[in-house]
Amino acid sequence: MKPPKTFLKDTFFNNQRTFDTEYVDVDIIKGKRRMAPFVHPRRSGKVVEREGYRTNTYKAPLINPKMPTTAEHLQKRLAGEPLYSGVSPDERAAEQLGKDLAELDDMITRREEWMCAQALFTGQIHVKGDGVDEVIDFNLTNKEALLSGAKWNEGTSNPLADLKRWRLHVIKASGITPDIAIFSSEVVDAFLWNEQVQKMLDLRLVETGQIDPQTLPNGVTYIGRIAELGLNIYSYDEWYIDDDGTEKPMVPEKTVTIASSRARFDMVYGAYIDMELGTMDLPRIPRSWVEKDPSTRWVQLISRPLPVPQHVDSIYVATVL
């Protein structure tokens, strides 16, 4: 199994919180720019109403993959085990248990990253699985699809003006200055070969911008920085297998997203209620049990994650091709 990448979770949803119930309270913060009122020295203070957020309550989605180990499995050599290692079935069972838990954890981690991507790029998380089909909507309204003539692979487009306009919109809507732009791979090519961007590069002014692509860990490529806008540009190459069996990019094709690493985005976890162990409010809850007929050991890893972009207005998503 390919190791999961966690650039989105690590960059934006790195504030972790746990709840002691299945339900999590989500504060969607949309404040205004009110000023304190003037008042006559002999008058009492002016009462102002509290405002700025809406609390939504969601039942945290349940993820609980499990794997079986049978006696037949223990008779076979594990992947990477020497041909004549002399490993006993009991030793092999312990090693298999650890590998299974690690694989289940990787699967949950990739699902968490997918949830972060959905929250960032669509403003919604579609929870669809066995017996569940619902949409968690964070009311992301900062979206745009560029029309013909403005698309970044056309000669009449101006990506720098678009980024400047979106950045200003985010600052006005949220009061937060975006510092990161994430491009899908094909958008990077269109951006770098765009005539307006080429003109900026030809100026070679440090204060205007510096484009110097560098490969970073976690599937990330640092494209460069537009100093005038305070934006660091990245592309993120990661994929997942969708429920229909097709492989899809974590960053939707033709998409640009600008956001702030300083905005309030949380990764919250709801509690899991077990009939024997009670309520457990942990990001990961391992379980293991044995069935006698047929003889099988099951291992399971449970989690109830939900990435929450409280400052949802600090995100702007655009389709640019």
Shape-level CATH architecture = Super Roll
Q: Helicity range of the residues?
A: 10-25%
**Could you tell me the strand content as a percent range?**
25-35%
Looking at the structure, what is the overall shape? Answer: globular
Low-confidence stretches: 204-208
Q: What strand order characterises the main sheet?
A: 7-21-14-8-11-10-9
CATH topology annotation:
putative capsid protein of prophage fold
Domain count: the total is 1
CATH hierarchy class name: Alpha Beta
Structural class: alpha+beta
Helix segment tally: 6
Biggest sheet overview: 7 strands, mixed
Kindly report the average pLDDT value: 86
Please give a quick description of this structure.
The protein is α+β, with helices and mostly antiparallel strands and 321 residues long. The protein has six helices and 21 strands.
Question: How does this model look, in words?
Answer:
- It comes from Anoxybacillus gonensis.
- This is Major capsid protein.
- The protein has one domain (7-33, 52-319): putative capsid protein of prophage fold (Super Roll), CATH 3.15.30.10.
- 23% of the residues lie in helices and 34% in strands.
- A hairpin with a 4-residue loop joins strand 10 (220-226) and strand 11 (231-236).
- The strands form seven sheets. It has a seven-stranded mixed sheet with strand order 7-21-14-8-11-10-9. A three-stranded mixed sheet has the order 1-15-20. A three-stranded antiparallel sheet has the order 4-19-18.
- It is globular and about 70 Å long.
- The chain has helices spanning 7-11, 71-74, 89-121, 159-174, 185-192, 195-203; strands spanning 15-18, 23-29, 53-59, 66-70, 124-129, 132-137, 143-145, 180-183, 210-216, 220-226, 231-236, 239-241, 247-249, 255-259, 265-269, 272-274, 278-280, 285-292, 295-302, 305-309, 316-319.
- It has 321 residues and is an alpha+beta fold.
- The two termini are 33 Å apart.
- The chain contains six helices and 21 strands.
